[in-house]
Amino acid sequence: MNGEILKNLLENGIKNGAYPCYAAAVGGKDGVLFREFGGNRALYPDVLPITEDTLFDMASLSKLIGTTMAALKLIEGGRLSLESKVGDYFESCCGKEGITVFELMTHTSGIKAHFPLWLRGINPNDAVAEILREPFGYETGSNAVYTCMGYILLGKIIEKIENEPLDRVVKRLVFEPLGMKNSFYCPPADKICAATERDADSGEIICGVVHDENARFLGGVSGNAGIFCTLDDCIIFAEMLAKKGEGFISKRIFELAITDHTPNFDEHRGLGFQLVGRRYGHTGFTGTSIFVHRDTQEYLILLTNRVHPTRERAGLYNVRKSLNLEIFGE
To answer: Is the N end or the C end of the chain the one with fewer CB atoms within 10 Å?
Structure first.
């Protein structure tokens, strides 16, 4: 690994308009090997440089950091089972009562990928009922189709089991045990955050408020999105992943989580993990990603705000691809 090459790739991402700022780290068995920041956390209404304590909106990476890890801890503790069904927790499931936690975590539930709860004219408390009322997108168990809606449902199941909001569950089961002291749903107002998109309705730049519309509709605490983290907290999390959960979760549960449960489907999915080649991890729509190589135990963290001031940016995929080739050789 050549640190200068990595830095040049990251800086070129700014120059080419892929994102306004980045925070990146590479590490492995020997600790952190590369840690770098660059660019501006905001371009509008003022230009503000990134700081080392800048929080990034994790977007769908929240599924892995929060919802998945909380679910795995509950499974390990016997409070949740992969065979548990949606009908065990909710009434009037509209034919979805047989969907299992396994199917929610592997994105094989048949639930549609996405639909706008915030435009349905419902109360946030009716989100579960609305998801269950929506027609299936495909037959349960016949394919793997990534779905935010299924993970919103999984978050609500976790809340039912623990009888407390998801943010408190994740703080207790994930953030506190790992020592992630700068990770939050709905970050405090005094925290520095990377700006995201210009809100289409208000015209204001979104900053410190979750970018995902469904998660925002649900008050910023949702199974699909909502977590904000610093790079250093992501390093803590990535190191745990690289060590196959050592000190956090049993090796048996972790290995089950990174097993490819959908080898013959359109997507390769573990339990909440995205599997790409020999890597396991997840990405987020705002421009975030954490991946670990299962053989070398090396990890790559790339945090950006590529949706600032608009999601109509291109180039992040090419930066990720170049970094993956440099670090992982794939």
So the answer is: C
Output the DSSP codes for 26-80.
EEETTEEEEEEEEEEEE-SSS-EE--TT-BEE-TTHHIIIIIIHHHHHHHHTTS-
The owner of tokens 């994102």 is: 19
- The two tokens of residue 89 are 């927790």
Whether omega for the bond prior to residue 45 falls within 30 degrees of 0, making it cis, is: yes
Q: 56 φ, ψ to 5°?
A: -110, 140
Q: Which long-range contacts (CB under 8 A, 24 or more apart) does 189-193 make?
A: 191/53, 191/55, 191/228, 192/41, 192/51, 192/53, 192/54, 192/55, 193/41, 193/54, 193/55, 193/56, 193/57, 193/228
Query: What is the per-residue pLDDT for 12?
Result: 97
**Residues 170, 69 contacting (CB under 8 angstroms):** yes
For residue 55, the tally of other CB atoms under 10 A from its CB is 26
| Calpha distance 131→128 (Å, rounded) | 5
> In CATH, what number is assigned to the domain containing residue 42?
3.40.710.10
What is the domain count for the chain? Answer: 1
**Token digits for 112?**
């549609």
| Domain span holding position 194 | 3-327
HEC letters along 118-157: HHCCCCHHHHHHHHHHCCCCCCCCCCCCCCHHHHHHHHHH
pLDDT tens column, 29-38: 779 999 999 9
* Sign of the CA dihedral with 39 first, then 42, 47, and 52 last: negative
Model confidence pTM above 0.90: yes
What was the pLDDT predicted at 152? 98
| CA 52-54-59 angle, 5° bins | 130
pLDDT in tens, 37-67: 999 999 999 999 999 999 999 999 999 999 9
